[in-house]
Amino acid sequence: MIIIGEKINGSIPVVAEAIAKRDSDFIKARAKLQADSGATYIDCCASVPEAEEVETLKWMIDCIQEVTDLPISIDSPSPDVLAQAYKFCKKPGIFNSVSGEGHKIDTIFPIMAEPGNEGWQVIALLSDNTGIPKCAADRLKVFDKIMAKAKEYGIAPNRIHIDPLVEMLCTSEDGIATNIETITSVREQYPSIHITAAISNISFNLPVRKLINYGFLVLAMNAGLDSGIMDPTNKDMLGLVYATEALLGLDDYCMEYIGAYREGLIGTAKKK
Known about the structure:
Number of helices: 10
CATH class of the largest domain: Alpha Beta
CATH architecture of the largest domain: Alpha-Beta Barrel
Largest sheet: 8 strands, parallel
Number of domains: 2
Structural class: alpha/beta
GO molecular function: cobalamin binding; metal ion binding; methionine synthase activity
Protein name: Methyltetrahydrofolate cobalamin methyltransferase
Helix content: 40-55%
Pfam family, one: Pterin_bind
Keywords: Cobalamin, Cobalt, Metal-binding, Methyltransferase, Transferase
Family: Belongs to the vitamin-B12 dependent methionine synthase family.
Number of strands: 8
CATH superfamily of the largest domain: Dihydropteroate synthase-like
CATH topology of the largest domain: TIM Barrel
């Protein structure tokens, strides 16, 4: 499973404080911790006013790249910011994100189609100018439009991470069914596409959030989720990823599961 580390995000108060103070040691420590814990990508979100965003992202990206070679997921709601910030990355990463809203796709997909940018991937949200569709059928209509644009620009499905948009369970009782139906349909139509989600969104405003997160993760992976925006330093969550992949037959002879344990990524360290 592709793990997009979520811990460098300006919407987190301690990260926002570090960004404001330009505390490079804090950002570097969070990047290295996630890299050492098994992340595949490091998400980088400034959460500052757009006028300050490109400069702030450059500083953050430079900090991250000083301590890890992992590719970066550049996280901004502005396609114009993404179009500038990706140039600061030493290797191809992920544009996070586009959607059916506004000119996002027509800004980012042409960049991905440029020679030399073939390694870049993108997270595509299933929302449009009307907002987040309430039912799976309408989200799949947005998905169809996104894939039509991908075909137009020559973007292969395996470069796209579809985000069905996870909503709070406590305010959307049909949300789980909608997400699972959407994930299942997307996976059936495009076996090589990636499907991602911000796992912890499901449990906002609920007690013992981790139980809801863990349950949703297993259901989503069973439906076809193969990418997740999550905390890789959470050994229980990461262990659940490896265990679920093994149970779904995605890990031959449980070699990845065993390897993760031996590397100390999951489970409790053995006493010497």
